[in-house]
Amino acid sequence: MSDKEQPIARAAEILGKSPRTVMRWIQSGKVPSKKIDGQWYVDISGVMPSEMTAPADVGSENDAEIADLRAEIADLRKEVPFLRSQLTVKDGEVSNLTKGITSLRSQLSEKDRQIVELHTLLGRAQKAPPNPGKKRWWKFWMG
């Protein structure tokens, strides 16, 4: 480590910036740095703070676009409560549909059980011996 390499806090003090700003410079690659034993050191040689924070060239055409975007953001913020209420309504509808599906599944299960029972009874009835029965009254002459 040389005199030109300083810890973030000291580099910020020398450059007249906050440690957070210096950390952003490191993350964006605006200043050379290295990490030694878990601590960041910044190479401040040749760093001109004014170069790091030079304002962007913003023309009047961008001002209008910025104003439009701010208006759009305001409009979107107004829509958020309505959309949240709609989401709550839809959540309630989903809950009701889920309960309905659960009820229908229960009914379907009961109907399936009844069908199996009817098939069992039908099978028994088909296997039962025929009723020898009584002679019909109109067949009295047959003897």
Question: What is the structure about, briefly put?
Answer:
The protein is mainly alpha-helical and 143 residues long. The chain contains four helices and three strands. A three-stranded antiparallel β-sheet has the order 1-3-2.
Commentary on this structure:
The protein has 143 residues and is mostly helical. It has two domains: 5-52; 71-125. It contains four helices and three strands. Strand 2 and strand 3 (39-43) form a beta hairpin.
Helices, strands, pairings?
Blueprint: E1 5-7, H1 8-15, H2 19-28, E2 33-36, E3 39-43, H3 49-52, H4 60-127
Antiparallel strand pairs: 1-3, 2-3
Radius of gyration: 43 Å
Number of separate structural domains: 2
Distance between the termini: 129 Å
Parts with pLDDT < 50 across at least 5 consecutive residues? none
Number of helices: 4
Question: What percentage of the residues does DSSP assign to strands (E)?
Answer: 5-15%
Keyword list:
143 residues; 4 helices
